[in-house]
Amino acid sequence: MTDTTRHKVIFDTDPGVDDALALYYLIRHPQVDLLGVTTVFGNAPVALTTRNARFLLREWGHGAPVHAGASGPLTPDMPPEAFPTHIHGENGLGDHPVDLDPTDDPDDAAQFLIDMIRLHPGQIRVLAVGRMTNLARAVQMAPDIAGLVRDVVIMGGAFRVPGNITPAAEANIWGDPLAADIVFGAAWRVVAVPLDLTTRTFMDRSTLNDLGARGGPGMRLVADLSQNYVRFYQAAGYDGMLVHDAAAAVCLTDPDLFTLTTGEVRVLSDGMALGLTLMNPADRQGPMGAWQGRPRQFAALEGQPQAILDRIAQVCTG
């Protein structure tokens, strides 16, 4: 029988400043068993995101294994993408000093996902906050895992609001839209935490600094490496930072703070709307067409931003 009070989590990530806060939240949460971290390209090249994940886990005294994953998208003919160094720094962690060198790890994240899901049937919860490439490859390699995973929670999509990399698309989806379409189309439960909600989940600078002061060395590291991220938002007129990935982590542990909309989801993988997430909502179903045969998935279009921030603060400083 599955113990629903515990969360066996694999964190699929591309650290990444807001990824670091999400990882710290998972490590600190008393009901989360972090079984492993899989890395993907996105906020930085995969060699750096893998190095960054290892650095953070070491600094926080956690022994979860790190498995490197995809270095590029499944989507053919993707337009060139520059890594967002203006947001996450040249090293992916806000240019905070990192005393580990990148290594040339084997690309085994998808196989690690398959192995762990099969080892713990009905128990694994995957939290994916980067490109969905590792997940898509895993379910392509082993379609049976869709019926064995407990659920998949992702940070991604922009369903009823503009995107943050193009008017149509959120960055994680845009970076590999074919992979996202595969993930939404697999026979597992997917809950997306999209820009519709995360762009309303804003941690102001004074709160971040207060958490860093109260939360001990671990939270101090998060606050320190987030300073360039805050400066990026300051240039846009905001004194603080959006906590996209940590909001998705809270959705995994505290779903009562989120309101879900359900329907079949497709992702466009070409044209000017590349990366657009489109839901055929269950409460006002249109003709099925391209949604025919797709499973109904979930998107947290609404929620309680202040309660989400309070939960992050409670876990990360408790």
Automatic annotation (TrEMBL):
Pfam families assigned to the protein according to its UniProt record, in alphabetical order: IU_nuc_hydro
Annotated region described as Disordered, given as residue ranges: 83-104
Segments traversing the membrane: none
Residues annotated as domain Inosine/uridine-preferring nucleoside hydrolase: 9-291
Recorded GO MF terms: hydrolase activity
SUPFAM superfamilies: Nucleoside hydrolase
Keywords (A to Z) from UniProt: Glycosidase, Hydrolase
Classification via PANTHER family: INOSINE-URIDINE PREFERRING NUCLEOSIDE HYDROLASE, URIDINE NUCLEOSIDASE
Protein name: Nucleoside hydrolase
Phylogenetic placement of the source organism: Bacteria, Pseudomonadati, Pseudomonadota, Alphaproteobacteria, Rhodobacterales
